[in-house]
Request: fold
Amino acid sequence: MDNSLIRKIFTPGIDFLKETGNIGLFFIQSIHMCFRKPFKFNYILKQMEFIGVNSVAVVVISGGFIGMVLALQSYHGFRRFGSEGLVGITVALSMTRELGPILTGLMVAGRAGSAMAAELGTMRVTEQIDALTVMALSPIKYLVVPRVIASFLMLPILTIVSDFVGIVGGYLVGVKLLGINEGAFINKIVKYLNVEDIYNGLVKAAFFGIILSVISCYKGFYTKGGAEGVGRSTTEAVVFSSLIILISDYVLTSLMF
Reply:
């Protein structure tokens, strides 16, 4: 077989493994720096505002409409079997177990993750990161750690907001629009929704926060090629973090449920 053909077949897989290994090393460095002084709480609070507070609107809109769509679709399915009362618990379980964490992770990756990659990428191509190194300051400590900690803390909180708004949206469509009995809708949720369902969803969200922040910071931190490289790193950060979130969701779901 021609050597060039072999390279075309195996090079993408090898590059992917290299990139995954580099991200793993970057993650280890970031976690190590999280426990080293000094602790810049003002940097962390600033990132919590940017990642968390500024993402509330997009999380509320996406969570609310997903809850409405779930109620609408499940109603038409359950009506065939005379089980419209199960719409409430279906919406609640879907939001708390899967859709709440997943939607929050993907929305924040698209909004805040892209901004992280673009900001760090711009700092790299303008040599600001190199300047920190020259001043004997750790760029990972001052630029990456606050973003990782803020994402880890804020993703579960945003997921709670998404879960709540999604269930409320399902209630409005199911009870007020489609005429499902209000008592049946709420009682099924109270009876069958367990604390473990909510807790496991929040654990997922915390993992997704670490994933999107580490990948986005990594892509921005090692940007090359000027302005074009910044755009490329931003795109790669969103795509790669979204894919890893979806893959890790399957792994976490198989372990938890």
User: Anything to note?
Assistant: The chain has a mean pLDDT of 89.
